[in-house]
Amino acid sequence: MKISNETKIGALTAIAIALLILGFNFLKGRSLFKSGFFLYARYDNTKGLLPSHVVTINGLAVGNIYDIEPADENVKEILVTMKFKDEFNIPKNSVAVIKDNPLGSPSIEIKLGTSKEYFVSDETITTGKGAGLFDAVGSKLSPVADQLVLTLSSLDSLLRSANNILDPNTKGNLQSVIANMNAATASLVKSSASLQTLLNTETGALAHTLDNVNTFSGALAANKNRLDSTMINVQQATQNLAKADIDGVVNNLKSSVEKLNSTLAQVNSPNGTLGALINDKALYNNLNNTVRSLNTLMDDLRVHPKRYVNISVFGRKDKGDYLTQPLPDSTNTPVNK
Fold it and tell me: Least crowded by CB within 10 Å, which of 113, 215, 220, 337?
């Protein structure tokens, strides 16, 4: 059987219309046949919700708005149908809240409850009012406002205390302090002028001091070679001193001191010969008497030579009295009687 062109055109038109309806519903998030997991919510204000807007749980997109229609003839409530991508376990005490987005489209956020019983498809979920933009800002600003009120109250108390402290006497003292500060500032200005005079490159004392420093630096630079030679000599002397056997010299000196101490101990001891000569009083007296006797003999020989030399030329032998002690003029020491 031959199909006419009119029939073909009509069939293509019907198919095109059907595809257009299906595509339009798809873009709106709706399918031609209502199938899947659905939940209903009743609101008195949808706040601009439209079909295909997102439904989220903890920030995750789990579905979208399937349909929005009046719940009664007076449009006091609006029934919102939500279609989910999968059959989620949503506790029955959960709440569906419309979430405003000032920069985009509003959405429905499901705040999960703690019930162990879960929704099944085509049940109605409890709704709640979400905080608007200004409500959120107000909730953030409320603690700040309370803190600001406390701060202003504290500031007011501080100002009252300051007014109580600043009695006429205190104000007069403060004026005196300010006057003293002004005087100190004036003195500081004078000191700055004096300092400026001091720093004058032509007449300032600091300039003369710097000239002296420059002269001294020039003298050091002119005698650099001598200073270097002196430093080298000092360094060599230090090295020679470091190389010297100081320990050996100290040990030898210590040994010499010990030997000298031993010698002095022997000299002081009466057991030694030198110690006996030094410490024995009788020996000293004997030596003194021997010297005295020798002086007496020498004086007697000088005075009476004939007693000891028998020469006839001098006549007979002198047999006078012998000297018993030295003559006063024959010795430098006093005569012991």
Answer: 337
- φ, ψ for residue 314 (rounded to 5)? -85, 0
- 3-state SS assignment for residue 38: strand
Helices 205-222, 224-243: crossing angle, 10 deg rounding: 60
Residue 192 CA to residue 200 CA, distance in Å, equals 12
pLDDT over 90 (residue 118):
yes
Both tokens of 283, joined, read 């020996």
Structure token pair of residue 83: 């279609």
- Spatial separation of the C-alpha atoms in residues 93 and 110, rounded to whole Å: 11
Which pLDDT tens digit goes with each residue over 64-92? 999 999 988 888 899 999 999 888 999 99
DSSP 44-92: S--TT--TT-EEEETTEEEEEEEEEEESSTT-SSEEEEEEESS----BT
Nearest alpha-carbon partner for 92 in 67, 124, 122, 65: 124
Could you tell me the two tokens for 203? Answer: 């007449």
Segment 308-318 shows an average pLDDT of 57
Cα–Cα distance, 193 to 6 (Å, whole number):
113
Instruction: Name every residue whose Cβ is closer than 8 Å to that of residue 63 and which is 6 or more positions away in sequence.
Output: 37, 54, 55, 82, 83, 84, 85
Tokens (6 digits) for 2: 């031959």
Three-state DSSP at 96 gives strand
